[in-house]
Write a structure and sequence with these properties.
Layout lengths: L7 E2 L9 E10 L2 E11 L4 E5 L6 H8 L5 E8 L4 E2 L3 H6 L2 E4 L11 H9 L6 H7 L1 H4 L11 H14 L4 E5 L7 H18 L2 E5 L3 H7 L2 E6 L2 E7 H6 L1 H8 L6
Parallel strand pairs: 4-9, 4-10, 7-8, 8-9
Antiparallel strand pairs: 1-6, 2-3, 2-5, 10-11
Helix pairs in contact: 3-6, 4-6, 7-8
The structure holds adenosine-5'-triphosphate.
Length: 250
Amino acid sequence: MTVTEDRTISVQGPADDMFVCSGLGAGYGSIEVVRRFDLTAAGGSVVAILGPNGAGKTTLLNTLAGLLPALHGSVSVAGQTVKNGRPADASDAGIVLVPDDRALFTALTVEDNLLAARGRHGTTVDSAFDRFPALATRRKLTAGNLSGGEQQMLAVARALMQEPRVLLLDEMTMGLAPIIVEELMPTVRRVAEDTGAVVVLVEQHVHLALEVADRALVLVHGEVVLDRTAAELAADPTLLESAYLGGSVA
Ligand code: ATP
C-alpha cells in the first residue's frame, strides 16, 4: 500500500497471499500515533501484535481496514490496490477486521448475521456452522442472546464469510472467561492454516497469543520495539518484559 498525495493506498503484492506494510504511519489528524510500522507476512501465518494500553494497536488495525486514513507508508496484499481510508476498498483487497466490539447485529438471528456478511462471496452458512458447531445449534437465536464466547465465534464466522486474505482480530478474547479463551485461541491457528489467510491478532493474553502465533511484534508508544518469532519470545519472557517497559530491543 503506497500513500500518495491524494491519499491513495496502492496495494501491490510481489507474491500471492503476501501481506506487506512498509513505513506505515497512522493516527488522527496531525497526531501520528503509530510510526514506521513494517510487516511482511506470508499467507497462512499468524502475527500477534502485542503491547501496553494506548500503544496504538487498534489505531493500526483500523488503518489497515481503511477505517482511518494512513498518514504515510505502503502496504501490499496479493497485488490489489486500496484507496486510503476507504473500508470498501480494503475489503475488496481481502482485508477484513473483527473489531473489539464485535459489530454484530444483535437483533438478528445467528443465521441472518452470517447471511448479511456474505456479500457477493459464495460462502455458505453451513461452512460457518461446520467450523463453529456451537453456532449451528443456535442458528435461530438472536445474536444478542448468545454468550460472550458464542458472540465472538459469530464475529469471526462473519468475517470468514467474506473469505479474507488478511484477517485482523482486535482483542478477540476481551471480556471472555479463561476457559472460553483457551477454546477460542486455537481457532485462530486453524483459520490461518485452512484458509491461507494472514491473521493479524491484537491480544492481551500474551502467552496464549504466542502459542498460536508464528511471529510477534511489540508496539510501545506507536513504535515496534521487538519483532521476533513467537517461539523465541515464549522461551524468553524477560525479553518481552523489557520491551513492555519501553526498552528498544528490536
Ligand atoms: P488498548 O490496548 O488500550 O486498546 P491500543 O494499543 O489499542 O490500546 P489505541 O486505541 O490505538 O491503543 O490508542 C492509541 C492512542 O491513540 C491513545 O493515546 C489514544 O488516546 C489515541 N486515540 C485513540 N482514538 C483516538 C481518536 N479518535 N482521536 C485522537 N486520539 C485517539
